[in-house]
């Protein structure tokens, strides 16, 4: 509930007021109304492309909060309540030891970093492009082609489905330990054919806990990749790194023991995965 400031009450007494004035108001605990919740259009674009895959609702990849609206950046930081989330974001954007975006993600282009940093340093002024959508992201299929039983079986079948789980049930002789699908975007539908443009130049590297590459798997045009053994050939846990045709990479930040990658990398993401295994 909002309360009139004492200056507003005096003004109303002198002039008469039939509606709430346009001046600043005070919210219950003496907090000044933060104003419009809209992000500037260029800031919204950077947040959508560089932040919102994890800082969404519900949050993914162990991100502690959503950053989809101006008010999200204005909230008190959970790490330092004396600072806002925007001020804390600014610290992380400049922190080489604990960067944001994290080291697991491709580096943020300097132009995007400068734009977001400038907005935060300016006090997060309101814009005109609103907030990013809350809730699950829309499911897409960039190629417009969905695999079906009529498409046939083989190495290109059922992209996005939990391959090893299905094989353990129906074809245990082909239930290879590492199996999954690489997609061009983060929220592609089950069965969507990724139609990767240069699959031979894409690598899925499986690393041990000493960061040594133990396997290099190359997806086919349907994005599917798989190892050739039913059990791993080295001690678990492992981490995975996806390397794109241009050499950019995206690396899993937390060790894993399950090689059935699509069980977590679903349309919306499960077990804190942000979504699909996405090209960097």
Q: How would you explain this protein's 3D organization?
A:
This protein is α+β, with helices and mostly antiparallel strands and 280 residues long. The protein has two domains: 88 residues, no CATH class; 130 residues, no CATH class. The strands form three sheets. A four-stranded antiparallel beta sheet has the order 6-5-8-9, with no helix packed on it. Strands 1-2-3 form a three-stranded antiparallel beta sheet, with no helix packed on it. It has a three-stranded mixed beta sheet with strand order 7-4-10, with no helix packed on it. β8 and β9 form a beta hairpin. α2 crosses α5 and α4 runs antiparallel to α5. The N terminus is likely disordered.
Notable characteristics:
280 residues; disordered N terminus; alpha+beta; 2 domains; 19% helix; three-stranded antiparallel beta sheet; four-stranded antiparallel beta sheet; elongated
How are the elements arranged and paired?
Layout: E1 2-3, H1 6-15, E2 26-27, E3 31-32, H2 41-50, H3 70-74, H4 85-93, H5 110-121, H6 163-170, E4 179-183, E5 203-207, E6 213-217, E7 224-226, E8 239-243, E9 249-251, E10 277-278
Parallel strand pairs: 4-10
Antiparallel strand pairs: 1-2, 2-3, 4-7, 5-6, 5-8, 8-9
Helix pairs in contact: 2-5, 4-5
